[in-house]
C-alpha cells in the first residue's frame, strides 16, 4: 500500500509523458504535412502564374502584331486611294487629249482627201496636156520633114496658141497673158528640133509647177472668201431676224391698242347716233380713217424703237461702204 502511494506520482508523470509521446508525433507529422502541402500549393501556384504570364505575353504579342498589320493595311489603303485618284485624273486628261487628237485627225483626213482630189484632177490635166503636146510634136516633125518652113512656122504658132489656151482653160483660167507671151516667145525662137523640144519640155514643166502653185494660192483665197461670206451671212441673218422681231412686236402693240379702242363705248347724241351708225358711208369712212391711223401709229411706234434705228443705220452704213 505504501509503495503504491509512493509510486502514484511517478505513474501520473509517466502517463502524462506517455500521452505526450503518443500525441506529439501526430502533431509533428501533421505540421510537416501542412508544410508539404503549402509548399506544393505554392509551387503549383507559381507554375500556374508562370503559365498565365506566358499566355498573357503570347496574347499581347498576337494583338500587337494584328494592330501593326491593321495600321500597315490602312496606310496601304490610303496610298492606293491616292494612286487611284491620280490615275483617274490622268485618265480624264488623256481622254480629253484623245478627243482633241481625234478631231484634229478627222480634219486632217478631210484636208488630205480634198488635196488628193485636187491632185488627181491636176494629174489628169497634166496627162491630157502631155498627150496633146506629143501629138503636136509629131505634127511638127512631119511638117519639118515635108520641107515647108514657112507653113511649118505658121502651123506651129497656131498649134502652140491652141495648146496653151486649152491648158489655161482646164487648169487656171486667169493666166491668159502668160499663154500669149509663151506662144510669141516660141514663135520667135529658131526652128531647130532639139532645142525646141528641150525648151518646150522645160517650159511645160515650169508651167505645170506654176499652175499648181497658182491653184494652191487660189484655193487659199477662196477658203478665206468663203469664211468671210459665211460670217457676213450670219451677221445679216441675225440683223434681219432682230428687225423682223421688232416690227412684229410693234405691229402687235398697235393692233392691241386698236382692238382696245374699238371695244370702248361710243359717246354720241341720241338723235343722230342711229343715222350716223346706220349709214354705209360712215362705216367706210371709219374703216379708211382707222387704217390710216393704224399706219400712222405703226410708223410712230417703229420710230420710237432705238434698236430698229440702230439696225437701219448699220445696214445703211454697210451698203454705203459696199
Q: Mean pLDDT, as a whole number?
A: 69
Helical content band: over 70%
β content, as a range?
A: under 5%
Structural class: mainly alpha
Looking at the structure, what is the overall shape? elongated
- Head-to-tail CA distance between termini: 181 Å
String of helices and strands: HHHHHHH
Number of E-state strands: 0
Primary descriptors:
322 residues, mainly alpha, coiled coil, signal
Describe what you observe in this structure.
With 322 residues, the protein is mainly alpha-helical. It has seven helices and no strands. The longest helix is centred in the N-terminal third of the chain and has 145 residues, at 2-146. The model is unreliable at 149-153, 163-195 and 266-289 (pLDDT under 50). Residues 271-296 are annotated as: Disordered. Residues 38-146 form a coiled coil. Keywords: Coiled coil, Signal. Residues 284-296 have a biased composition (Basic and acidic residues).
Record the SSE blueprint.
Elements: H1 2-146, H2 149-170, H3 176-188, H4 193-262, H5 270-278, H6 280-304, H7 306-321
Helix pairs in contact: 1-2, 1-4, 2-3, 4-6
Give a brief outline of the structure:
The protein is an all-alpha fold. The chain has a domain of 110 residues. The chain is built from 7 helices and no strands.
Amino acid at each position: 500500500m505504501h509503495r503504491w502511494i509512493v509510486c502514484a506520482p511517478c505513474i501520473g508523470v509517466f502517463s502524462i509523458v506517455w500521452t505526450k509521446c503518443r500525441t506529439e508525433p501526430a502533431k509533428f507529422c501533421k505540421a510537416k504535412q501542412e508544410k508539404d502541402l503549402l509548399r506544393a500549393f505554392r509551387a503549383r501556384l507559381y507554375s500556374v502564374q508562370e503559365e498565365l504570364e506566358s499566355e498573357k505575353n503570347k496574347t499581347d504579342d498576337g494583338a500587337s502584331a494584328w494592330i501593326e498589320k491593321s495600321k500597315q493595311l490602312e496606310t496601304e489603303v490610303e496610298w492606293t486611294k491616292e494612286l487611284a485618284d491620280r490615275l483617274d485624273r490622268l485618265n480624264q486628261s488623256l481622254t480629253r487629249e484623245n478627243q482633241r487628237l481625234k478631231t484634229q485627225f478627222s480634219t486632217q483626213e478631210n484636208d488630205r482627201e480634198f488635196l488628193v482630189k485636187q491632185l488627181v484632177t491636176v494629174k489628169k490635166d497634166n496627162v491630157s496636156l502631155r498627150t496633146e503636146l506629143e501629138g503636136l510634136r509629131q505634127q511638127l516633125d512631119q511638117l519639118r520633114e515635108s520641107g515647108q518652113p514657112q507653113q511649118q512656122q505658121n502651123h506651129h504658132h497656131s498649134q502652140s496658141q491652141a495648146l496653151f489656151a486649152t491648158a489655161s482653160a482646164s487648169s487656171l483660167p486667169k493666166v491668159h497673158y502668160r499663154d500669149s507671151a509663151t506662144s510669141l516667145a516660141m514663135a520667135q525662137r529658131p526652128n531647130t528640133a532639139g532645142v525646141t523640144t528641150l525648151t518646150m519640155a522645160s517650159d511645160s514643166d515650169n508651167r505645170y509647177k506654176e499652175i499648181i502653185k497658182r491653184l494652191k494660192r487660189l484655193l487659199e483665197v477662196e477658203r478665206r472668201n468663203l469664211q468671210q461670206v459665211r460670217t457676213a451671212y450670219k451677221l445679216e441673218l441675225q440683223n434681219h431676224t432682230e428687225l423682223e422681231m421688232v416690227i412684229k412686236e410693234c405691229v402687235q402693240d398697235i393692233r392691241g391698242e386698236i382692238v382696245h379702242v374699238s371695244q370702248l363705248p361710243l359717246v354720241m347724241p341720241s338723235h343722230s347716233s342711229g343715222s350716223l351708225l346706220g349709214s354705209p358711208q360712215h362705216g367706210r369712212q371709219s374703216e379708211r380713217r382707222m387704217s390710216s391711223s393704224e399706219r400712222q401709229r405703226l410708223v410712230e411706234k417703229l420710230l420710237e424703237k432705238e434698236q430698229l434705228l440702230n439696225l437701219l443705220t448699220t445696214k445703211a452704213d454697210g451698203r454705203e461702204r459696199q
